[in-house]
Amino acid sequence: MASKVQASDHVSYKSITSKGLLNFMWKYRALYLISLPGIIYFFIFKYVPLFGSVIAFQDYNIFQGIMGSKWVGLEHFQRMFAHYDFLNILKNTLLIGLYDLVLGFPAPIVLALLLNELRVVLYKRVLQTVVYMPHFLSWVIVSGIAIGILSPSTGIVNHLISWLGYDPIYFLGEESYIRSVLIGSGIWRDSGYGTIIYLAALAGINPDLYEAAEVDGASRWRQTISITLPSLMPTIMILFLLHIGKFLDFGFERVYVFLNPLNINNGEILDTYIYKAGLQGQQYSYTTAIGLFKSVVGLMLIVIGNFLSKKTTGESLY
């Protein structure tokens, strides 16, 4: 008898919860309707293609399709790690991703803090517009600008080096400089646009905190350390977790436009190798295996980073 009562209570609670959820969704139906195009986009272009990852375990043939292609198991993953140049390509990807994390990720934070200190509103707005603009340039244009600036014969950087009494440097013709060029061009292009979220977070900090700190005699530097950065920490941690999730996805177009036979040894990354082997070499299953490997590593980094962030700062993605 008691078990029947408990079961009926459970059903009743479940029906009430379901009814409450439906009422909640109906109450905010306008918001759900607005979000519907985004949900459809992610479902079609992000989730549906995941089913195509099965070809990483097949000898995929475009004429036979997924259902007719031969199943080969982990053969492509074994081939990936046995490739003579794979470890070097993976090392390049890891190093460039690490440099971008150490140098590129803090750049928008520093720039946002500097912009926030400007008191002349008109000057601040103009400067914000100037630093935002490079983000809207394609990587082809960015590479053209960088190649022109770094040219050993006409580039302004080498003119300055020659003026100081040193020999010109062919930055894109020496493999030791390609990683610096990639990171530097990325910081110039995207750091300004990345400040938008941080400036919005800075605008939400209670000004009474700064007034109280001034009364206590705190300098601007002390206010930044004790008030601004702690207030920004939740935003920084969320964006950091999102950043490490795409640690191996540095971007094909960002690298390919800078590569040439002289710097490819230090500049080739997984994305450019996938393009060459997959699209040019038509090795679809092999490159899908590489892409799946990247995705698994990214997922592991997010899970580990989210766990550590939750334990240390209390902030997390989920």
Q: What does this 3D model show about the protein?
A:
Strands 1-2 form a two-stranded antiparallel ribbon. It has helices at 2-27, 29-47, 65-68, 75-82, 86-104, 106-116, 121-132, 139-149, 156-163, 178-203, 207-215, 220-245, 252-256, 264-267, 270-280, 284-312; strands at 58-59, 70-71. The protein folds into two domains: 1-73; 74-312, MetI-like (MetI-like fold, Orthogonal Bundle), CATH 1.10.3720.10. The chain contains 16 helices and two strands. The model is unreliable at 1-16 (pLDDT under 50). It is 72% helix and 1% strand. The chain is mainly alpha-helical. Residues 90-305 form the ABC transmembrane type-1 domain. Belongs to the binding-protein-dependent transport system permease family. Keywords: Cell membrane, Membrane, Transmembrane, Transmembrane helix, Transport.
